[in-house]
Write a sequence for this structure.
């Protein structure tokens, strides 16, 4: 079916809302605070790829666990990269991490919504190169259990290597990305031993309550999927999970500027979306 | 006939060769307008910076890469940032996403055009410039279906004419114009 026909259906907002209710009942995921326009667009795309012509037809299908997982993957978007937005990593390396590690015995880092783990792998590489890794405690979380398995395995497709190299080059000029991975068939397996000390855990930013205090929280490219109100809730939640004067890093096109909670933070780097918890010293 | 007060926003898409065209267009626009202008162009992956700066040099209107859930302000040119699709949410705020590429590209011209079409309906002017693939054709179709006004750069004046030709084949295009004519059209409605 072509996208033309899908659009002719134009996924009525009411039906999307019913679908969201159904998902909540059956699986306990709450998509009601996702930005409805982009959420519908991704559902439409999933339907197009799977030749589903109506929400009525989609609903019984995703009662099946396997089908639901592929639906979840499609609507939650797992796009990520090694050293995504390299200038942010350079800033962490030069300006944030040295001081943070000087001031704290143990530095606790949380990658909220880590997807397939490239962001965590980047952090491990960075800290190892700075000889700080042994002082760090790293946690990666995501809503998607399947993607977390990938993050644990830290196994990626080889064709992504040139891409990784480009980013790494900015952070560590002259370093070779391939030195951090073993090649197994057409896969790259991250081979740094310490990676097994990283903990991974299922965590839903909407429904779960924060469980610990961190010195550094990276929550990148997941706020963009929520509407403004839900973003506000999550930013407050992240604030609650930060130690006094802890750091928060958002994605390149995300901002807390127009949120009430922006009062709780000061901006450390506007370009790199790095904020620092202001209150509660 | 296109009347100035029907139009509440302008959206422009382009690919190969379009940067130069955009530079020419922006350099001749006034320094104020009541409309927002949205621009989605294919750009090199992993070249994160530089495009807004280089376009800003010649433009009197300010060119910015918007953030997610930012409010739309009149009189600005909004450029889709590298590696994100740029859309307008139903709330009227910007929405960025790193969904998979569409037709090999992120930002996708179709997504920006399509979401502008849904939001502005008949009050939208869509312009598709030179380019080497068929991204934008579906977006132009949505603009037309929603009652908006569709314009393509005259294929004869394109560095690569695949993009406007694909749009001409996909939907009703109200006007096929040279760059000069596009500038004049913009001057009358802005
Ligand atoms: C685009 S990836 C971001 C990966 C990485 N942080 C980056 O910036 O490259 C977005 C991730 O958010 C996760 N996600 C979506 N909704 C979530 C929620 N409610 N709670 C936790 N994670 C969520 C998705 O499963 C996906 O892995």
């Amino acid at each position: 079916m072509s996208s033309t026909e899908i659009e002719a259906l134009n996924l009525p907002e009411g039906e999307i809302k019913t679908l969201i209710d159904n998902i909540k009942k059956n699986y306990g995921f709450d998509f009601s605070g996702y930005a409805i326009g982009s959420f519908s667009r991704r559902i439409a795309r999933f339907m197009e790829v799977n030749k589903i012509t109506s929400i009525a037809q989609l609903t019984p299908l995703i009662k099946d666990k396997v089908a639901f997982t592929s639906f979840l993957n499609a609507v939650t978007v797992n796009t990520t990269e090694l050293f995504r937005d390299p200038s942010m990593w350079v800033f962490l390396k030069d300006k944030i991490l040295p001081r943070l590690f000087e001031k704290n015995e143990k530095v606790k880092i949380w990658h909220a919504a880590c997807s397939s783990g490239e962001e965590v792998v980047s952090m491990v590489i960075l800290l190892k190169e700075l000889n700080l890794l042994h002082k760090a405690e790293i946690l990666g979380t995501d809503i998607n259990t399947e993607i977390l398995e990938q993050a644990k395995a830290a196994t990626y497709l080889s064709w992504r290597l040139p891409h990784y190299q480009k980013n790494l080059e900015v952070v560590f000029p002259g370093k070779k990305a391939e030195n951090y991975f073993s090649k197994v068939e057409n896969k790259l397996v991250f081979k740094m031993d310490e990676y097994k000390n990283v903990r991974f855990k299922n965590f839903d930013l909407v429904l779960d309550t924060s469980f610990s205090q961190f010195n550094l929280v990276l929550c990148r490219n997941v706020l963009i999927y929520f509407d403004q109100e839900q973003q506000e809730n999550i930013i407050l939640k992240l604030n609650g999970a930060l130690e006094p004067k802890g750091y928060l890093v958002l994605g390149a096109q995300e901002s807390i500027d127009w949120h009430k909670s922006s009062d709780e933070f000061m901006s450390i780097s506007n370009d790199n979306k790095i904020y620092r918890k202001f209150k509660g010293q | 006939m296109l009347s100035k007060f029907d139009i509440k926003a302008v959206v422009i898409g382009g690919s190969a060769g379009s940067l130069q065209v955009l530079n020419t267009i922006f350099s001749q626009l006034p320094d104020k307008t009541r409309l927002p202008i949205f621009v989605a162009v294919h750009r090199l992956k992993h070249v994160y910076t530089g495009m807004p700066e280089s376009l800003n040099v010649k433009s009197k209107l300010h060119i910015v890469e918007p953030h997610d859930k930012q409010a739309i302000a009149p009189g600005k040119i909004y450029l889709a940032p590298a590696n994100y699709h740029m859309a307008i949410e139903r709330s009227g705020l910007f929405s960025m996403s790193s969904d998979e590429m569409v037709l090999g590209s992120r930002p996708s011209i179709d997504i920006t055009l399509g979401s502008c079409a849904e939001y502005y309906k008949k009050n939208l002017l869509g312009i598709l410039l030179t380019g080497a693939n068929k991204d934008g054709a579906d977006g132009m179709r949505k603009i037309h279906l929603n009652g908006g006004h569709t314009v393509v750069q005259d294929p004869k004046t394109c560095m690569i004419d695949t993009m406007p030709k694909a749009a001409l084949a996909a939907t009703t295009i109200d006007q096929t114009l040279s760059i000069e004519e596009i500038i004049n059209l913009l001057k009358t409605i802005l």
User: Anything to note?
Assistant: The two ends of chain B are 16 Å apart (CA to CA).
